[in-house]
Design brief:
The structure is a single chain. The protein is of the alpha/beta class and about 475 residues long. The chain folds into three domains: about 120 residues, Rossmann fold (3-Layer(aba) Sandwich); about 130 residues, Nitrogenase molybdenum iron protein domain (Rossmann fold, 3-Layer(aba) Sandwich), CATH 3.40.50.1980; about 100 residues, no CATH class. Helices cover about 35% and strands about 25% of the residues. It has 16 helices and 20 strands. Strands 13, 14, 15, 16, 17 and 20 form a six-stranded mixed β-sheet that branches. A hairpin with a 2-residue loop joins strand 18 and strand 19. The longest helix has about 30 residues.
Length: about 475
């Protein structure tokens, strides 16, 4: 009897072992093929990927931006010199410019995937090999831009993240649409983008740039011509009579010089001095910052309308908080607080002091009895708001929302996102300095200077004053 039972047990174990082996084989087979995808690129080419790419060269700055935003840039090995951020991409080899990439440099990187645009079609045959796929990504509209983000996300294994990114962008554009709807249509403004001033180039009627103008509540020109860039004459410009003109920041001097000619003095935008400049990466690139640019553009075109309380759509409130670990005896608490103010997402670094202190502020000068110091990040869409309502009123609005007293709070404003905040400490003899530094600007307020501190107070007096703060 015992022998029969043992035989049955051995048989069952054998069957279970075989079933487990089959299950494991199926599991590994499924895991290996889970990624396998087939996509169609902007050029109409159908490509199949069996595995995620591990060595990517991107000749399209917009695609590079998408990959970085999706945090899939560990596979990036080559980019163009047009990509300057995020800083972590400095490890990638620069293979030239968008218009003139180096084929030699690209091949030396031994990529398994090259991203190109329609401008690089002649390179496809030279780049495509049995070990390297070539994907074309070109943008002609907002809908295509969204599809491109999903396409790239699918290829780099970030499908869900790409969908979430697009949904977030669409929510922001829907918010701008709601704000623009509160402006009477008769007050909507005619808006024109100048792409290159030396030949006075503007986007064609079918360009995504004109769609961005529409999304921002502007009225784009209709030239009766299609194309990436067009030359227009004086008659056409006068017939449209733009009320707001914007251009790439790199063309600032040329554009200003062009419109200082007295022949343009009666053009509406020139007469009202409504000529603005934005980063090249925003005006000519349809990637992950479409929503940010449309918000900034709309808020600049309609700064007067967006600052009015009746045009505010969302409730002003405090959002997420992130506490900082500051081990300083005179600091009670330090945190970064997100807020919704005038419909846009703001972030404030606020340091509460253990007792009232004397504060030296580069904005407000010397102030006494201060219980909190703060540095407030203003998103670009809110820059005009501060000018419209005034710095003092806006600062009070922020302090009240953060439940701090304006009269005992010393505040600065910055264009550097608090997501780029770095905390560092250093000591010298009995002195210790803790710096909370924001980065991310490329024009003014980059740094105070490179001067060394060569005076040490204790060597003169022998006693230390109470610790303080420089805001």
């Amino acid at each position: 009897m015992q022998s029969s039972i043992e035989k049955i047990q051995r048989y069952l174990l054998s069957v279970c072992g075989k079933l487990l082996l089959v299950f494991c084989c199926l599991l590994f087979s499924t895991a290996g093929s889970a990624y396998a995808i087939t996509v169609t690129d902007s050029g109409g080419y159908q490509l199949t990927f069996k595995n995620p790419p591990v060595r990517i060269v991107s000749l399209v700055p917009g695609v590079t931006e998408i990959i970085a935003k999706l945090k899939a840039d560990q596979a990036l090995v080559g980019i163009t010199y047009h990509t300057t951020r995020p800083a972590r991409l400095s490890r990638c080899m620069v293979v030239g410019g968008f218009m003139a990439p180096s084929l030699k440099r690209i091949k030396a990187l031994n990529p398994d995937l090259d991203f190109i645009s329609s401008m690089h079609e002649d390179l496809r045959a030279q780049l495509a090999t049995s070990k390297c796929q070539v994907v074309e990504v070109s943008t002609s509209s907002l809908a295509v831009a969204y599809s491109n983000i999903k396409l790239v996300g699918n290829i780099v294994g970030k499908k869900l993240e790409a969908v979430q990114l697009v949904e977030g962008m669409q929510r922001q554009l829907a918010l701008i649409s709601r704000k623009v709807e509160r402006i009477p249509p008769v007050q909507w403004r005619r808006v024109m983008l100048v792409m290159e001033c030396s030949d006075f180039m503007v986007p064609g009627d079918d360009s995504f740039q004109n769609e961005l103008i529409t999304a921002a509540g502007g009225i784009p020109p209709v030239w009766g011509k299609k194309g990436v860039a067009l030359n227009i004459d004086e008659e056409a410009l006068r017939a449209f009579d733009p009320q707001f003109i914007y251009a790439n920041g790199s063309c600032r001097q040329k554009v200003r010089k062009f419109f200082t000619d007295s022949v343009w003095a009666d053009v509406a935008a020139v007469k009202s001095k409504n000529i603005s400049f934005f980063p090249d990466a925003l005006t000519g690139r349809a990637a992950t910052h479409i929503d940010d640019f449309v918000a900034w553009l709309a808020a600049t075109i309609y700064a007067d309308h967006f600052s009015r309380s009746e045009n505010i759509v969302l409730r002003e409130e405090v959002g997420a908080r992130r506490e900082l670990d500051l081990k300083i005896e005179y600091v009670k608490r330090a945190e970064v607080v997100e807020t919704t103010i005038a419909d846009f997402n703001h972030k404030t670094l606020i340091v509460d002091l253990a007792e009232p202190m004397l504060v030296l502020s580069t904005l407000e000068g010397l102030r006494q009895q201060i219980t909190a110091v703060a540095n407030h990040y203003l998103p670009p869409a809110s820059w005009g708001l501060v000018h419209q309502i005034g710095e003092e009123e806006f600062e009070g609005r922020i302090a009240n929302l953060l439940e701090r007293k304006p009269e005992t709070t010393s505040m600065l404003f910055t264009g550097a996102d608090m997501d780029n905040l770095v905390q560092q400490s250093a000591s010298f003899k009995e002195m210790q300095v803790t710096a909370l530094v924001t980065a991310g600007v490329s024009s003014n307020a980059v740094r105070m200077g490179a001067e060394e501190g060569r005076y040490y107070e204790l060597e003169e007096s022998g006693t230390a004053e109470k610790p303080g703060t420089i805001n």
